[in-house]
Model the fold of this input.
Amino acid sequence: MTKQKPMVLILGANGHLGRAATEVFARRGWRVFAVARSNLANESTPKTDAIVRIAASIEAHEQIVAQARGAHVVLYAANPPYTQWPGRALPMAQAGARIARELGASLLFPGNVYNFGAEMPNLLTERTPQLARTRKGRVRIEIESMLAAEAERGLRTLVLRAGDFFGSNSGSWFDRVIAKSAARGKLVYPGPLDREHAWAYLPDLVRTFVVLAERELDFTTPQSGIERLGFPGHTLTGESLLAATEKAYRDRLGDATKQPQRSQTPWGLYRVLSPFVPIVREIVEMEYLWRAPHRIDGSALGNAIGAIPETSLSDALNASLDPLFSSP
Done:
């Protein structure tokens, strides 16, 4: 008798996290229900019967549940546009929790560091108080409070907290700002160069989500409650990130003497523009993340899964620069 494949539902499958997760889950032998507003696969996504595409908004929970019956795990990878974040992020997360609950599946949720605010301590653990004062930080706190309440009603929830993404053309600060013009010999850093900042190489983070999903299958008795885990990733000062990126740049060019030009994000100009340009306003609100040094403690995650997936920084940066050098 053929053993049935485990099944995962990915909400937001056309986003950066969702697209990468769709590919890795399928490669690891999962049947993937990939939900996005458009069912058009990304060109890099493998064509395989293991991936079932569902064209639906996350609010269409009845349609999604009907087509994803049997899913053991739901990965929440949906994300509204940054300018719509304060109004849409919580309702979308509520919809995702409802879908997982109705499927009887475990919910995997990507957390971030917005919850902790400008006064956050250097080391962020599962017990660090969530004291954010920004709008997006307060929304993040509301989302996790909602998930905790859902967990009390029986929804099994895992929050995996990570820093800024990089890698896999992830649409992050790294490829949209810091190394956007690397092919032209320019690097831009958003903050002081001596402050630690938490980064998550997206392929490593996705592999960790897969390991957590496989762990859910291995439990001999149903689990309940909410579990918060920190993904340590790469903690880097601005100087160490730029230096490593410069080395990757020189290695790519085969010229040990070539040095990119460095510059800083023009926050003064951004603050002037913020009342008139919505996306700039949202970015300025989170400027403190580049001034407040922070790292994520991965001890609880290591205790839960053993070895945490970790690509060396040099390999991760080389892979991250690939699409930036190949873009026209």
